[in-house]
Amino acid sequence: MRFSIIIPMLLLISNLFAQNQTKKDSIAKQELKEVVIQNNKKSIEQKADRTIFSFSDQAHLNSGSLLEGLKKLPGLIVSDVAGMMYQGKQLEVYMDGRPTNMYSNELTSYLEGMPANAIEKIEIITQPGAEFPATSGGAIINIITSKNAKKYVSATYSNGYSFSKYTKSRHRFNNSILINAKNDWFGWQVQLGQNYNESFQKTIFKSTDLLLSDNYSDKKNKLYFIKTGLKFDIKNDRLLLNYDINTQANLADIAAFGYGFTANDNSKTNKLRNEVSVVYQKRFQNTAKKLDFSLDFNQNQIDFNLHPINQNAATLSNNSVQNYYQFKIDFTNEWHFLDKTKWSIGTLAERTDFETRNFDVVNLDYTRKTFSIYNELQSSYKSFDFIFGTRLESYEITGKTDTYTLNTFKRVRLFPNATIQYNLMKDIFINANYNQKISLPNTSALNPNNTNYQNPNVNFYGNPNLDPTLFDNYEIKLSAMEYFNIGYSWTNAQNQVISRIVSSNNSAANVSQNLPKMSIHHFTFGFPVPFMIFTKGIKKMLEYNFNPDEINFIYLYLENQKHIIEGLDSKGVTYFGFMAQIILPQKIKFTTNFNSSTTGGNYYYYQMNRPFYNQMDFTFSKKFLSNNLSASIVLNDVLNTNRQDLSGIGTPFTYQNKYDSRRIGFSINYKLPSKNKLAKEENILTKEQKEDRTLVK
């Protein structure tokens, strides 16, 4: 009965949104001897293994910080408690196809400082195949900043400003510029920018009869970044060179009081990140045959200090240095087996060195080495697509603290993955996937130092003794015309690393622990409704030829997530929301985003007492000067309802958090116009991950 209802629904969506399959309105990508021809971008693309969100053309996403834009994506959750999660899966964060190796509050601070108008698109890879490291865990988010170089000098300038009014006015502004060019021998690109951010945050730890801590933080964050790229053409081959640097200075004045204390502190965090990447792409007469060599290095340095106001003696003085090295080789070829078959094979070697200091005393010296090889087949036969792969990885983890030596961890393990997809008709498919992954404890969770905040009653700790987590991931989904999707996934996890609140003697601490066994179940549903279906009727609407990104519609989504933990009365949490687009007179686009959740459910050992991320945002945008100038006005958290209220399960304490989420601002994006519309475009900054695993083209 349910199947008989779903099929007519899919046919309706197919008829409605297939009308975008014209040469003028759709994205059409063709690869011909490394030349990419691309038309108008879709706001959302559903691939077999990932979802792609365009940022550069979506004013409601790129008008503020990257963190604010990510929070508006359906199904994506970002918080200091949950971390970054999509459809129930923890995300490993990549930037331009390379792992960032940033986690926890370090990652949140970086995303909050990076302007969203510097981002091209976001890929969320929910079914990472064998070519991705098994240490990616359940899913990957790839933040792509690179643009296309053209056979002429082109430039884009972006600017944004916003303010909030909580006790006093606080301001944010950012500026960035992108310049690139290409000739017959090489292409180059430079992207540089800055972000200044004033904000406040109020947090409370308390029980029914005891106030542990009431903190009020007044923050100022500054970020500067430079991204550079060179591409050299060597006959049919390509050499890509990239260097990125960003620096942050985060200051906070913190007034706190609670049981037995009153404090006024200053905190200062300085961060420096450098990254170098070299990629050589060997190409053959057979364009389906490719061989890539990649070498990456990145370094993250963090210095954190906390001291009482008007005193030089520091309460906390912690710093860390992380060096990450990676070398990999990827080979791809294609031959005629069944309909078509693509074979990929590769190897990867990486090393992470992590050192932490507390008042200049080394209290963690940690080294992790990984070596892996993979093999994957992608094939198509009639209406079926198949992916089968295996990845063999070996790990060696050693380390020591200032008082003892960590147990050496050595392991060799095989990780399989398999995907079967049945294509009902063009752009409508059913997909089933299984993959096994591992997650090694990130350096933020391992860090024994407090790099957040402490007072006599509240503290934050890492745990150098954490064990890796093993995942068995299962997923089945139905997708139609990019816009409709329904899916169910579940994960069985062993030694899941979690963050939880523990209490003792009228104090509380946030700590990292291994959970021996748990499972995560997740259901998701998304459905678009064009408004013209109510004004013109279905029959009349089918006569129109329209672009779904340029009509009035509402996109509804719902997801339910349940963490099942032994010994815990687990209850699910339902997240829901919508994104509505209305085209006003003068082609002004009005976009509304709303997100909320039910209460009473648990996220690991936290129980939600208030709706999670309960917020409504408005954006008005318009393009001028032949679409070269984009301007937008944004109102975030119009109703001022976004706040957290969580209970620490197993403790008498609750955690409450409020920040200046209600803001008003504007942004502009200006592209230097050019008369050369037929210039060849190639991506020179990065070797992006494979975008479409639907399989052989």
Automatic annotation (TrEMBL):
InterPro entries: Beta-barrel_TonB_sf (IPR036942), OMP_b-brl_3 (IPR041700), Plug_dom_sf (IPR037066)
Protein name as annotated: Probable TonB-dependent outer membrane receptor
GO cellular component: cell outer membrane
Domain Outer membrane protein beta-barrel, residue spans: 282-670
Transmembrane segments: none
Key words of the record: Cell outer membrane, Membrane, Receptor, Signal
Tree of life domain: Bacteria
Residues spanning the signal sequence: 1-18
Predominant localisation class: membrane
A Pfam family this chain is assigned to: OMP_b-brl_3
Lineage: Bacteria, Pseudomonadati, Bacteroidota, Flavobacteriia, Flavobacteriales
Subcellular location: Cell outer membrane
